[in-house]
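Quarterly update from the structural biology core.
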Amino acid sequence: MWMFYSGLALFFVLHLATATPVVRQRLVTALGENAWKGVVALGSLGAIVLIVSGWKYAPTTPLFPPSPIAIRVAPVLVSVALILFVIGGGNLKGHIRRALHHPMLVGVILWSATHLLANGGLRETVLFGAFLLFAGYALCSLLLAGKRAAFAPAWKWDAIGIGIGLFVAIGVMHIHKWLFGVSVS
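Predicted structure, tokenized:
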């Protein structure tokens, strides 16, 4: 159980530092841009290993009944979230990224809120609730700091992001039960 919570703490400390412009700038100044990115990348990888390794030992206590509506719409909302992950993570300069400014964070909000409502156990609430709170904070922090996408968008990047995102979504739906123990209906 300690691995699960330690992994979450490490992941969110690193990402909160990155999402808080003043803190990030101080760390970049102290370490250098590439060293800071290396710390975040390696720390995040270690955190994910801890979260995944500790998942099965985390408490599964039921907290609330899963939402039937969330379960029903999850395939669509998570597919949209995965498209937004691809567009944001790939830095695809299309109209979607230009409109949302931070599509990956919007995708995390969709993904985590959907999973939070579609589950109901303690470990799911801790995991998806933490991601939801972080993504909401990060999005507000970046927008308030004036971090907005500014470029000339092209539709081809939207098409590429949607295509790759749907391909990933279909793949995840097919292996979701094997990966996570829950079938996508």
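The chain has a mean pLDDT of 93.
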